[in-house]
Amino acid sequence: MSIITKFSNLTEIAQHIRKDLIGDHRPMKDLVLLFAHNASGKTRLSMEFKQIGKTFDADGNVTSRDTLYFNAFTEDLFSWNNDLENDTERELKLNSDSAFFDGLRELNLNSKIESFLNNYVDLKFDINYDTSTVTFSRSIIVEGNEQTIPNIKISRGEETLFIWCFFLAICQLAIDEDPAYSWVKYIYVDDPISSLDENNAIAIACDLANLLTKKDNNGKFEMSIKTVISTHHSLFFNVLCNEFGRKVKNKKYFLHNKGVNGYSLQDTNDTPFFHHIATLSELKNIVEKQDSDNPPKIYTYHFNALRSILEKTATFFGHDKIDECIYGLEDEVLFDRALQLFSHGKYSIFDPVEMSDDSKDLFIRIFNGFTTKYDFYFPQIFNNDTQTETTA
Fold first, then answer.
1. What residue stretches are annotated with the Protein CR006 P-loop domain (predicted)?
2. How do 78-81 and 91-94 pair as beta strands?
3. How many CB atoms lie within 10 A of CB 353?
4. pLDDT value at position 346?
5. Which residues pair with 12 in a beta bridge?
6. Helix residue spans in the chain (DSSP H)
7. What is 292-343 written as a DSSP string?
8. Buried b (16+ CB within 10 A) or exposed e, 24-63
9. Which residues pair with 124 in a beta bridge?
10. Residue 29, pLDDT score
11. 3-class secondary structure, 103
């Protein structure tokens, strides 16, 4: 049985995570892994965590900070000048007003960034510290001779990788205790894998684990700097869990956004696996609570969700049609017609329509028949039968 802790806002969650990392009335952890779906508040949580670590003077100016972070705001510090007039001098601009780039000229990050970037793509770059710009080039072979194409516009995925490697280079400076980053007490990474394929997602997770862990004099792994990593990407999260595993003292959470009811953190030893399991778990909870005094409503769009799961199941088993997933069930013909009728309607989660009682009964029968035929395992991370705590 896992524990769900309720919070009224993200600041409370950030404080809770900091207590995990310092061991405030609980076992101290070196790493917190956080899984949450999009729009759950992950990025805002990273900013709250960062904000708590700042101190200010009487005029409101920041006098110290303790968190080096990567999130969507970090990526926004980089923008393209595409030279629309001549279409030749394309360059990536750095927002030099940000403290993120303080002291870059003295640090000369080119070689450090290159050592990370070479693990992912074959790409050359040059940072102009006077103009705060980056230009890219690529080598190609033409008739047996190597040629360089300058001032290229790189892909979105390559740009993401470059920015990520830029961040890793700064992390390396903090780990090496460079005076310029002696203030870094925590590293917070939020979803670094947008616009990347699964191979790069796996590589980034593995490289991040290698960067952040080291062996002590006794040959045991330890974190170089206490770290929080949050993501919506199930594969990335799974690889992180496997890579860090038992190497370091860690805590894993599933973040739930409860809307007007605030947020909750579900303490879990499970990994989130795939989204279809999460969706199926939500439907399972709805179906199982229909006999309660206050059952949740079943809407027409739930048929869309159920059909989507059947399609994934059919594809997994090599079937052309979803009716194979309900073959052999009692009333299989009726079930197939219902799935076709309801799931092809224009039902939206933004304009929900509650099912009639007959349709609810049909939906429940289809769901129960399907989940009886295929014995899905539901990780405890999706289980609502949990012990609940509320923060003071």
1. 115-359
2. antiparallel
3. 12
4. 47
5. none
6. 10-22, 42-52, 72-75, 104-107, 110-117, 156-175, 198-212, 234-244, 275-288, 301-316, 332-343, 357-373
7. SSSPPP-BTHHHHHHHHHHHHHHHHTT-SSGGGGGTTSTTHHHHHHHHHHHH
8. eeeeebbbbbbbbeeebbbbbbbbbbbeebeeeeeeeeee
9. 137
10. 95
11. coil
Task: Give CB contacts under 8 A, 24+ apart, made by 207-213.
Answer: 207/116, 207/119, 207/168, 208/168, 208/240, 208/243, 209/240, 209/243, 209/244, 209/247, 211/168, 211/171, 211/172, 211/175, 212/31, 212/171, 212/175, 212/187, 213/244, 213/247, 213/248
Tokens of 180: 């310029």
26, two tokens:
């609980």
Residue 195 tokens, joined: 């616009």
Block mean pLDDT (10 aa), the chain, length 392: 84 97 93 88 95 94 93 90 74 87 78 89 89 91 84 87 92 91 94 70 87 87 94 82 86 87 82 63 80 74 81 82 83 80 51 76 88 78 52 54
Cβ-contact 178, 107 below 8 angstroms? yes
Measured at the alpha carbon of residue 321, what is the angle toward residues 320 and 322, in degrees to the nearest 5?
Answer: 135
pTM of the model: 0.72
Whose CA is closest to 92, among 127, 121, 61, 45?
127
Q: CA–CA separation, 249 vs 31, rounded Å?
A: 6
Per the CB < 8 A criterion, the answer to whether 6 and 237 are in contact is no
Query: Quick one: tokens of 384?
Result: 């609502």
DSSP bridge partners of 138: 149
